[in-house]
Every structure is written in structure tokens, then in C-alpha cells.
Amino acid sequence: MTNWTELDQNVRTWIQEAGERIRQSFKTELNIKTKSNRNDLVTDMDEATEHFFTEKIRNTYPDHQILGEEGYGDDFKELSGITWIIDPIDGTMNFVHQQRNFAISIGIYDGEEGKLGYIYDVVHDELYFANKGHGAYMNDVKLPGLEPVPVQDAIVALNALWVTENKRIDRTILAPLVKDVRGTRSYGSAAIELAYVASGRLDAYLTMRLAPWDFAAGKIMIEEVGGIVTDLNGDPLNPLNKSSLFVGKPGLHQTILTDYLKRKI
Ligand code: IPD
Ligand code: CA
Ligand code: CA
After folding, report:
1. Which has fewest Cβ within 10 Å: 38, 50, 202, 232?
2. Which of 189, 205, 243 to mutate to test the pocket of ligand 1 (most atoms within 8 A of CB)?
3. What domains are there in the chain, each with its CATH number?
4. Ligand 2 centroid vs 105 CA: distance in angstroms?
5. Distance CA 233, CA 48 (A)
6. Per-residue pLDDT at 65 exceeds 90
């Protein structure tokens, strides 16, 4: 039997230690490489942080499985037992260029069910946490449930790229949404954008393509405060698949899906 209280304490200790190492790294020169294209960055800190977590988890919980962006995790095809889904630094471009607006994201699944979610904004020292069935918190302050908001009052996070060129949704669909909402924002870290929807700083967030480590923790968090999490067709996400993502406050999510994205739900 898993002792969830002890596990939660361990994750918090490890996140604090990893966060401190990342903050200390600002004083040293980073080794920056590119992955799939010249804007897809990875640094030695992304790798060292994931390695740090996988070592801790394997030493403490040898029967748990790990999915990590940088490849230090395990090879598996289905969620069974306890699975840790880790993005050691979400928002690497911000980490490299701005030294802010990036986060450590850890989602812990029990079978197929999201159980615990942690998003740690390292520079602002904000830990967003969700415990399935027991609420979501920001630095131990409970987050209230999300209330509906009209499109005209909503702040929606999206990347400008999706409005200018985009194979998945025609820009003529997104342009009216951008025009009608109160404002748009783009923070460059999916995990932070998801934590901001959960905490009400944003009303919705949509994006064309994310990986499981980008949304594993945020999905648990948003659902815990009554927000809606789907892909851009309004379908549920598979925690192990890459997909588009659309999250938002109740009511607002449905209105944008049916009136703007023209999807049925
Ligand atoms: C990226 C960030 C970004 C999102 C990209 C992700 P990374 O994660 O979350 O906001 O638009 O799709 O890949 O590479 O910085 O961990
Ligand atoms: Ca990421
Ligand atoms: Ca990352």
C-alpha cells in the first residue's frame, strides 16, 4: 500500500531541492542544445533535473514507473500501478532567455486516475498542488472552484503562431475568438498556463500540440477546481498521448467549443 502522505512530503522536498539547484544554475553558464528544431531547446539543467527526480523515485519507489521528457524514465505502453509523469523544466525557452516563467511539472497517476499534481514556478516560488478529491492549492492556500465567465470578460492564453499559421484549425476560426475576448496572453510554459487557469488568473488556454509531461499535473489541477479539460475537439485526453489541448472555466469552455471552434460536445 502506498503511503500517500509520505509520498507527498517526499515530492515537496525533492521539488524544493531541484528548484534551488535550478536557481543556483543562474550563476553558471548553461550548456544549451537544440532538439527537433532550432527553437526546441534543452539545457544541461533540464537533463540534470530529470535525472535527479528519477534517481530519487527509483531509490524510494522501485516499483513505480516514470515517464520523463528527457528520456531518463521507463519504456511502457500503459498506465498501471503508480506512474510519475515529469517535465523537469517546462518553458525551457523562457528559462534560457528570461530566467523566469518556467516550472517543474509532476503528475502522479494511480492506474489511469490522476492522483497528485505539482507545478512549481521556480522563480516566483509558487507551488501549485492538486490532490484528487481533496482540492487544489497555491502555496497551501486552497483554490476556490471556477465560476463561469462570459467570452467578453475572458482572458485566454494562446500562442500567436496558432492564429497566423496552423494546419489544425483555420485562422479564420481563431481570429474572431481573439477579437471577442477581453485579452489574450502567452506565457510560454504550458504548465504555468494550466496552473493559471486552475487559479483563475486565466479563464481558458488552448494549444495545438502538447506532450503528456506538459499537461499531466495541470489536468488534475484544473479538474479539481471544476474546470474542463479536453482536446480541441472536445474529446477527453489520453494521459500517455500527444494531443491538442483546450481547458477552461465551465460554461466558457462549452461556449468557445461550440460557438467558435464549431465542435459538437
Ligand atoms: C513547451 C512549453 C510551451 C509549449 C510547447 C512545450 P518545454 O515545453 O510548454 O509553452 O507551447 O508545446 O513543448 O519544451 O519548454 O518543456
Ligand atoms: Ca514541456
Ligand atoms: Ca521540458
Report:
1. 38
2. 189
3. 4-142 (3.30.540.10), 151-264 (3.40.190.80)
4. 8
5. 36
6. yes
